[in-house]
Amino acid sequence: MNPVVRQFRDFFVSLRLTVVLLILSLLIVFVATLDQVNLGIWAVQEKYFRSFFVMWHLPNSNIALPVFPGGYFIGGLLLINLVAAHIYRFAFNFKKLGIQLAHSGLILLLVSELLTGLLQQDSSMRIDEGESKQYAESFRENELAILDKTNPAYDEVVAVPEAVLTDEGTIQHPKLPFQVKVKAYYANTTMQVGDPAARPGAPVANQGVGARVQVLPLPLTYKPDERNLPAAFIEIVGPAGSLGTWVVSPAVGMPQTFTFEGHTWELVFRFKRTYLPFSLALLKFSHDRYPGTEIPKNFSSRVRVKSDDGRDDREALIYMNNPLRHGGMTFYQADYDHERELYTILQVVRNPGWLLPYISCIMMGLGLVIQFSQSLRNFINKRSAAGAP
Amino acid sequence: MKKHLALLVLLLGAAYLASTLRPPSNKSAFDLVGFGRVPVLVNGRIKPLDTVARTSLLTLQGRQRVSTPEISEPFVASPIEWLADVFFNPTKADRYPTIKIDSPEVLTLLGITEDETRIKYDSAAKRTLAILGFLPSTKSRFSYEQLRPKLPELDRQARLAEPVESQLRTAFQKQAIAVRDRIVLYLQLKTSVQVPDTTDFLGELELFERALPAGIRAVLAKQKGEAHNEDALKAMMAMAERASYMEQLGNLRVVPPAAGDTDPTHWRPTGTALMEAFSTMKVDATIMDYARIGHAWRSADSATFNGIVGTLHSTLTPRYPDAMRKSDIEGRFNAAAPFYSSMTLYVWAFLLAIVSWLKWPLELGRAAFWLLGLAFVSTSVGIFTRMWLEGRPPVTNLYSSALFVGWGAVLLCVVLERIYRNAIGSVAGGMIGFATLLIAHHLSLSGDTLEMVRAVLDSNFWLATHVVVITIGYAATFLAGFLALIYVFRGLFTRTLDSATADALTRMVYGIVCFATLCSLVGTVLGGIWADQSWGRFWGWDPKENGALMIVIWNAVILHARWGGLVKQRGLMSLAIFGNIVTSWSWFGVNMLGVGLHSYGFMDAAFYWLIAFVASQLLVIALASIPLDKWRSFRTSAKPA
User: Fold this and answer.
1) Chain B closest-CA separation from residue A152 CA (Å)
2) Sign of the dihedral through C-alpha B496, B498, B502, B505
3) CA-CA distances (angstroms) from residue B327 to A2, B251, B385?
4) pLDDT on residue B72
5) What tens digit of pLDDT does each residue of B375-389 get?
6) What is the pLDDT of residue B573?
7) Both A46 and A162 in a single domain?
8) Which residues of chain A are within 8 Å of residue B547 when distances are taken between CB atoms?
């Protein structure tokens, strides 16, 4: 064999590489745990685990230097190492069954985590008691929806993702008879009542809520229990000129409408929606505490699942450790109305690979049990052969 | 003598254990033991007053003894006697030093001067010891009476500190809130069965009951705007005010629901039950019973006291047979303190095993092994009793995880010692058993260790699988680390580590690491599946999950380094010792993330201990890297592989 190829092969199948990679992963997990105090859980995942390199931003500049291999890098190499060693050393015999099973399980687990990272979609549903909902809302993503409300039977919706707004450009869409100009975008804001013109620097809105409030930009929050509330200044420009400037934000509760060429339009900046092929209605939310304490004993939501085609119409009880799986999605009890217990918040997860960890768990557990019980048997046989005391 | 040494030691140990199992006896004419077994509902479960007394004392002052260093005799003979004083004779209880304050800033806030904190020992010998630092020279426990004048100021400071996020609070803010909470707990106990400022609650209740019909008429008349008896009205208002005060503050639900009603949520605090008298025209019998007990307690009338306690038992026992049986067993369990006696036995097993390496290996080794076994049995009984009381798998909170880590590690040690018979298992078992029980003791200071589990943990299936398996993984990783410590210390400082023993230790460490890998891996993956079931993701990189993952990775590092020939005997030992650091981080470190990193200048006591432990382990790893020819055991004999 070509010596270069052999060196290459020896590098990738070596146990030394395994040990080095494992130690690197230990370090990255440790540092990422510590950094959660500063960054919060989501930013840490992006920075350390869902990246090829951990980047360090030079203070006061936009230059970032790779300072440590990231999760994809270490995980990828570990996967290559594992698969290469497996192929190289593979020889099916009964003695190695345990170790091979365990490592195959590990490969499956790494693959399933990768799949989860790429394919899993999280969102949430807040349903009031008695209400029925057919869409889930994203935790972190928002969208600008422009609705044509002219036809009372249905709405025509054009949804603009938040990422497009951050460019602060002009949007032209075949379904819209006007241009949408993003004059300013802020990733996190708060609003207070006041004269918008009193705040120099920001564009001035002259329509809707924006004419009466000031928009104050805030630094991004990473706290797990808070979310960023973006805001944007949107100018609608028709062929004959500007129709006005609106402030839109998920914090604005009331609809902002205008008419153009005989159609009624509505502007909403809202949590990004995913529509489901069925609806969920909350029949009853219950919450019990242990007597004489505030320690929650359980919370549960009784819901009714009704599909569009009418094939499904059933009741289900969702509570801690007992989610509802329906239509490729899983609904978990996540939160509730802490004051009056009138609504429930369900977490909605679509993860096509959810079954893989279960299979890999069985493979790894079984593999290790086989391997170690073999070692134990050898040990006992040796001792009794040696006649140890 | 030498031949029967092991048997003798075992018998002594068994006799010691048996002595703790004696039913607790009354030290005076009052049936305080019976009073301690009266059940009340608090924090979601029915428990005996004895447990209330013990856990309250632990929360208030970190120990169950009520005493001051200046007087050798304790103020009360038992926790339940203290509780009786708090309930029925508060002026006396107010003078017991039962509120622990460590922070000098809080002491200043409360106006406690240095003169008040200095301990004035009565003997010259004690004074000398105090100067040398062997005895404490300042007091840390104070009486309610001492603190009372400045309580509004403390409450104000605590209220100021409360809106600050708990992780961002300064040391002073944390301590102000902690001390305020202790005082609130004390006040809650004081107002649980009677109003503290009364001298004759029984008399007042009797008077109130007689005045009820006239009083209610007066209230109704006043509502209609008719003429009414002003005195009768005043009496009603006064009692209503007291009842509402008790209802707001009292935290024990002492009054059981009406006969036939088994719903535990219907147990009521005294204040609520007293309010009901306005509609039923009668003061609840249980309240009257407590008031009679209180009257008898103050007037030293033991016959009445014992009689009413008996009445309470005979009315409650047929109604709550299960709760009363549990209450009785819990009282016995508290008095026997099996974990305390196990701690003592572990220490003896450890010492005997150490000595057996130097002298009489066979006899002392066996004695140590039997003592270890005895301690293990006693811990097991304790853990099983807790499981039965709770109706749950063994690990439900940090406290029980400490118990179970020790239990699992000692079980593995017993197995190792059975196989190798070289006292190494006994030394490691004694050490880990003692250390984990000590940790558990310190964790128990936060209150009732049999607390109810939160909704998210309310799944006996997962508690029994994931939590148990992962805790055994902790135990095994620690055990491997402790065995490695024994290797380093014996090899470096003594001549007792011959190559056979060194090889045996290596095999032990290797085997235990294999076992640890299995348990921590399976436990972690099971945890992932539980997370998938309850939160919708298999893995979320949250600190506790990362901690578990780090243990798995580290065990995998050890195994692969060994298989790849990257480490030999000594390297394996160093890696295993580092496993102690990884495990202690996962077990405790991740829970302190907020503490250590956010509040500069403030070191939580537990955080300090964690740092000290990590430093000590790093030191041993450094020691292990001293060249082998400097090791006492290997200087002359052949070097191990």
Assistant:
1) 38
2) negative
3) 78, 19, 12
4) 74
5) 999 999 999 999 988
6) 94
7) no
8) 33
Find which of A320, A329, A336, A371 to mutate to test the B interface (most B CBs within 10 Å of its CB). A320
Mean pLDDT of chain B: 85
Q: What is the token pair recorded at B38? A: 């009266």
For chain B, the domains span 34-190, 201-321, 337-453, 480-597+610-641
- Cα A21 from Cα A24, distance rounded (Å): 5
Does B152 contact A at CB distance below 8 Å? no
Q: What is the pLDDT of residue B458?
A: 67
> Are residues A151 and A270 both part of a single domain?
yes
- Torsion angles phi and psi, residue A255, rounded to 5: -70, 145
- Interface probe, candidates B247, B261, B517, B538, chain A, greatest A C-beta count within 10 A: B538
- Pairwise CB contact (< 8 Å): B557 & A22: yes
Range of the domain at A306: 125-133+278-350
Whole-number pLDDT of residue A292 = 67
pLDDT band at A38 (very low <50, low <70, confident <90, very high): confident
Q: What is the ipTM of this complex?
A: 0.78
Does residue A130 surpass a pLDDT of 50? yes
Contacts of residue B456 in chain A, CB cutoff 8 Å?
320-321
Task: For residues A226 and A182, state if they share a domain.
Answer: yes
Residues A102 and A220 placed together within one structural domain of the fold: no
CA dist list (Å): B205 to B198, B240, B302, B562: 11, 12, 21, 77
Using the Cβ of A355 and the Cβ atoms of chain B, whether some distance falls under 8 Å is answered with no
For A378, nearest residue in chain B (alpha carbons): B511
Closest CA to B38 of B314, B391, B382: B314
Domain endpoint, select from A240, A274, A308: A274
Confidence of residue A356 (pLDDT cuts 50, 70, 90): confident
Number of domains chain A is built from: 3
Q: Which residue on chain B is closest to A27 by alpha carbon?
A: B550
What is the distance between the alpha carbons of residues A72 and A53, in angstroms, rounded to a whole number?
Answer: 8
